[in-house]
């Protein structure tokens, strides 16, 4: 039986012909990395290859690693296998990985979204025979509103909080979501303060693309300075002593999970804004159709439901288990706590 061009093993997604892994979750010799989130870029590989805008991001997170960067569409060949990276639109530096050998083309999406967020390079359709897609929000219930509507609501919320003399605290992951929020906040309303973990990442991202001015919160920051202004913090900061100094405040979360009734209540959040860096149901389906792929492999998310639907639509679809999640919560929590402890 012919070995597939890519197959899943206990270390990650493996190309045997090239002896290369895509986003491996255990240490390997050579890894091609789709983006900087901790569930896709792990420490311990001997060699990393990624898009050049992602190089400073993963070096910031992983430390002194052997990493090289390539440009969009730049082909590099390993033992006859052609690889190239194409925009995924998920976060800054996020890529789909195209793999071609003897006329057969596979595409691994990593994480992706089709809406242009104004800060990431927009998603690019890549034609292929086999498409490996995430299913983080692979249910018909997930249908995103245009982001301009969401950010209008966020800025209206901030303005109201300012009039009520409350501090606005908006939670978003330190890489990706935080910068997207910053890009679209109305800075005429007030100043934007950030948790140290986000500010440190902002300093890296500013070398890649402009961001609005932000002020790092330190132990010397007074709650009077924050009143009426905006604070961007990672979700893990919500339950930390760090946040108590900011009273009175109103909290909100910007996440696709806010589409679920009860999610805001379970997280003890005052307000939820449905804003995701992943495709919704229709975005997944339209992306798959545009690739022209006949074989679809569904990973991380609502894989069983989504793959069954694809089979009903005539696709050759199946599921594979990975160790990918929306974001590595433990890593985010550890980073946030470490930066909080410095203040």
Automatic annotation (TrEMBL):
Which GO molecular function terms does the record list? exonuclease activity; ligase activity
Stretches the record annotates as Disordered: 320-343
Keywords, alphabetical: Exonuclease, Hydrolase, Ligase, Nuclease
Q: Where is the composition biased (Basic and acidic residues)?
A: 331-343
The superkingdom of the source organism is Bacteria
Q: What is its EC number?
A: 3.1.-.-
Please name the Gene3D superfamilies in this protein's record: Ribonuclease Z/Hydroxyacylglutathione hydrolase-like
Classification via PANTHER family: BLL1145 PROTEIN (PTHR11203:SF49), CLEAVAGE AND POLYADENYLATION SPECIFICITY FACTOR FAMILY MEMBER (PTHR11203)
What name does the UniProt record give this protein? Ligase-associated DNA damage response exonuclease
Q: The organism's lineage? A: Bacteria, Pseudomonadati, Bacteroidota, Flavobacteriia, Flavobacteriales
């Amino acid at each position: 039986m012919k070995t597939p061009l890519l197959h899943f093993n206990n270390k990650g997604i493996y190309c045997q012909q090239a002896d290369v892994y895509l986003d491996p979750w255990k240490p390997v010799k050579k890894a091609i990395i789709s983006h900087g989130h901790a569930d896709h870029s792990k420490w311990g590989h001997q060699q990393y290859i990624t898009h050049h805008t992602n190089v400073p991001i993963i070096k910031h997170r992983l430390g002194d690693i052997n990493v090289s960067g390539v440009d969009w569409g730049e082909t590099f060949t390993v033992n006859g296998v052609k690889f190239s990276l194409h925009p995924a639109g998920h976060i800054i530096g996020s890529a789909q990985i195209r793999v071609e050998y003897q006329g057969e083309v596979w595409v691994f999406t990593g994480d992706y979204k089709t809406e242009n967020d104004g800060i990431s390079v927009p998603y690019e359709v890549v034609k292929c025979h086999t498409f490996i897609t995430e299913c983080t929000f692979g249910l018909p219930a997930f249908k995103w509103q245009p982001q301009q509507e969401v950010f209008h609501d966020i800025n209206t919320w901030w303005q109201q909080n300012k009039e009520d003399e409350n501090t606005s605290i908006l939670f978003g992951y330190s890489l990706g979501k935080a910068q997207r929020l910053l890009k679209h906040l109305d800075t005429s309303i007030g100043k934007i303060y950030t948790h140290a973990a986000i500010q440190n990442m902002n300093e890296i991202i500013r070398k890649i693309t402009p961001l609005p001015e932000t002020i790092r919160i330190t132990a010397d920051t007074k709650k009077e300075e924050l009143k009426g202004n905006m604070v961007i913090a990672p979700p893990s900061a919500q339950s930390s002593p760090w946040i108590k100094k900011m009273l009175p405040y109103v909290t909100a979360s910007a996440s696709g999970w806010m589409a679920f009734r009860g999610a805001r209540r379970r997280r003890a959040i005052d307000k939820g804004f449905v804003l995701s860096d992943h495709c919704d149901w229709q975005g997944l389906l339209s992306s798959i159709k545009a690739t022209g792929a006949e074989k679809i492999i569904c990973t991380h998310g609502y894989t069983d439901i989504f793959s069954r639907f694809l089979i009903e639509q005539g696709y050759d679809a199946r599921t594979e288990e990975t160790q990918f999640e929306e974001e590595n919560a433990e890593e985010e929590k550890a980073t946030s706590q470490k930066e909080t402890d410095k203040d």
